[in-house]
Amino acid sequence: MEKLQYEDLPLKVYKALKEMILRGELKSGQKLQQENLAEQLGVSRTPLLTAFSKLEREMLIEILPRKGAYVRHFTKKELLDIYDIRVRMEPLGARKAAEHASKKQIEELRSRLEEFRAASDKDDIGHITEADYRIHMEIMQISGNQFLYQMASSFNIIVIANLEGFPKDYHVSIEEHEQLFHAIKDGDGDAAEIFMQNHLSSSREIIAASFEEE
Q: For the CA atoms of 27, 30, 33, 36, what is the dihedral angle to 10 degrees?
């Protein structure tokens, strides 16, 4: 990773660590070695600790007294609870995105869909999960609700970091993403809300079933 040499280092360190968790470079339950991360990012421990505090507030890491900081690990029940929130929260974002999307934003979302399709064609799990995250976050960004965007970002990364693989058949997910895209492009808030709710509800059911089988 390129060393960070810009202003507002705590924010840049926070974003870099968040991306590392998203991409699986920092895994659920892993201890965060401050000296190694500071050297890797080319920063002192001060902005690193500031970033840790922000990530802890977003539930992405936990700081344990006398033990250090860890990428937070979530139980199966906690992951399903998070999905219950996503099922109700992200449909709102999809509705608002349909109401507010500009032509430029529609094209950006189209590009995200193509990234997901390309990763699926290559059976590239890492890029599939990342592309799925980008699609959901693009929709939340289009919604114009920054609070919704921030909460959805944390919840999405928590799920990605604590699940192995991708929960749904890629082709099914592509079809569901396409439905969402067209509803948003057409400005149909009702349809966008329903499609997002169905998309997330079916994923939750698949994950719940897999937990029961373990």
A: -30
pTM: 0.91
Alpha-carbon distance of 17 to 178, in angstroms, equals: 31
CB-facing half-sphere around the CA of 156: CA atoms within 13 A: 25
Token output for 27: 């895994």
**pLDDT of amino acid 3:** 53
DSSP letters for 5-69: -SSSHHHHHHHHHHHHHHTTSS-TT-B--HHHHHHHHT--HHHHHHHHHHHHHTTSEEEETTTEE
CATH architecture of 9-71: Orthogonal Bundle (1.10)
Domain boundaries, the chain: 9-71, 76-213
Q: Are 51 and 13 in contact (CB under 8 A)?
A: yes
The dihedral through the CA atoms of 136, 137, 138, 140 has a sign that is positive
Tokens 């290559």, located at residue: 122
Rounded average pLDDT over 198-202: 98
Give first-to-last CA distance, the chain, whole Å.
36
Owner of token pair 């929130």: 85
- Distances from the Cα of 79 to the Cα of 17, 39, 93, 117, 211, angstroms: 21, 33, 20, 26, 11
User: Could you read off the pLDDT of 170-192 as tens digits, one per residue?
Assistant: 999 999 999 999 999 999 999 99
Q: Residue 160: what pLDDT?
A: 95
Q: Under CATH, which number does the domain 76-213 receive?
A: 1.20.120.530
